[in-house]
Amino acid sequence: MSEQINNREYRKNAIKDMLRQLHEGKSVDEVKAQFAAAFDGVAAGEISAAEQELINEGLPVAEIQNLCDVHAAVFEGSVEEIHAPLDYTKVGGHPTNVLILENRYLQDIIGRKIRPFLAGALTRTALGALKDGLEALAKIDLHYSRKENIIFPFMEKYGITAPPQVMWGVDDEIRALIKEAIALIEEGASVDEISQKAEHAADQVEEMIYKEESILIPMVLEVFTLEDWNKIASDSAAEGYLIDNVPLWKAPVTGEGKAPQVNLSGTGAIVLPTGEFALNELEQVLNHLPFDITFVDKNDVVKYFSQGKDRIFVRTKAVIGRNVSKCHPPASVHVVENIVADFKSGKKDHEDFWINMGDTYVYIRYFAVRDEAGEYLGVVEVTQDIKPIQAITGEKRLVE
User: Fold this and answer.
1) Which of 240, 268, 236 is nearest to 249 (CA)?
2) What whole-number distance in Å separates Cα of residue 128 and Cα of residue 249?
3) Euclidean distance between the first and final Cα of the chain, in Å?
4) What is the spatial distance between Cα 358 and Cα 360, in angstroms, rounded to a whole number?
5) Which residues of 157-190 are buried (b: 16+ CB within 10 A; e: fewer)?
6) How far apart are CA 356 and CA 154, in angstroms?
């Protein structure tokens, strides 16, 4: 056993050393040569551990993200050899099977609706068809959102924090590339500029497909339990898929389906200083508010979110118990952390933002929650589409 541990430690340190060399400017071929000489194969989990240690030692997540494409190429052969698809990837409805089927769908869009128009001259008709293809590819946001909001929280539960941070950052880059390519077509940019942007977007999507299937999926199959997969499958079905006719998948799990424990009074009511609710009444009142709320406790852990029928930002049950800093893309997480820090210090009691999102005008408000003694209990986020409110004029005094 000690020999296995020492060997694993040696391999991990060697991977860290190769990542550092890439970071310092060594060529991929130089590092590949070292890798071939030192290893017969390497597990995805060991790459993850090496990345995590580099981040712990001070290498910024953004640097690991910049290396992501390069070290994926370095490790490509060995990861594929060790991590042939496991049975669950072939089981209809299992989350890993759905991810792979969606990746085939995305590759089909790239192969039929994007790349053929990049090979020749881009006529006006071809530009229109390319735009249609890019808009179809933009639906990849649903695929990435499920990964980020449902799978990543479970990875973090097992201490796998570096890969989600890196991958989320790359996902956001891909989303931006697709939007930029569409915008260039709409703005009448040069054919060369459009082609380069569209091709870069397609290349990055295909590279992410490789990373998901040869690194992410094998990694999570090693650690997730059947209970984890059941919860992931349930939340995924609720959020929706890129493909049709996804069968329901559920494995039997002992102890699942227990009712949540709630502190009730002797009358079965949730008693508050100004009144009381039955549990069902309280749940439905919160879900019928004309805005979304999310509560994060004093330890920065997400504890609750309302489930109105028209939520603006996606929330899944996997987010409960997750650190709030892990619920945002790396590029914007510092904003949330600064708000929370100001609330905890007492510097601020609230912070507001407002943004255009398609046909909505979203007002996002954060409030520090304190008890009667002023002790910080957490933060509540309130999100609302205020466009209909802005359109109100005059007065209304009668019921229609």
Assistant:
1) 236
2) 39
3) 77
4) 6
5) eeebbbbbbbbbbbbbbbbebbebbbebbeeeee
6) 31
| Residue 242: per-residue pLDDT | 94
Q: Which ranges of the chain have pLDDT less than 50?
A: 1-5, 80-86, 255-260
| CA–CA gap between residue 169 and residue 331 (Å, rounded) | 7
Instruction: Specify the pLDDT at position 391.
Output: 92
pLDDT at 247: 87
Q: Show the tokens assigned to 84.
A: 């042939």
Q: What pLDDT is stored for residue 313 in this prediction?
A: 83
How many other CB atoms are found less than 10 A from the CB of residue 32? 16
Backbone angles phi, psi at 177, to 5 degrees: -60, -45
pLDDT of residue 142: 95
Single-letter residue type at 44: A
Asked whether 399 and 382 are in contact (CB, 8 A), the reply is no
Cβ of 13: how many Cβ atoms within 10 Å?
12
| Side-chain half-sphere CA neighbours of 184 within 13 A | 21
Q: What is the pLDDT of residue 143?
A: 96
Strands 360-370 and 376-385: antiparallel
- What average pLDDT does the chain have? 83
In this structure, what is the dihedral angle of CA atoms 387, 388, 391, 396, given to the nearest 10 degrees?
-160
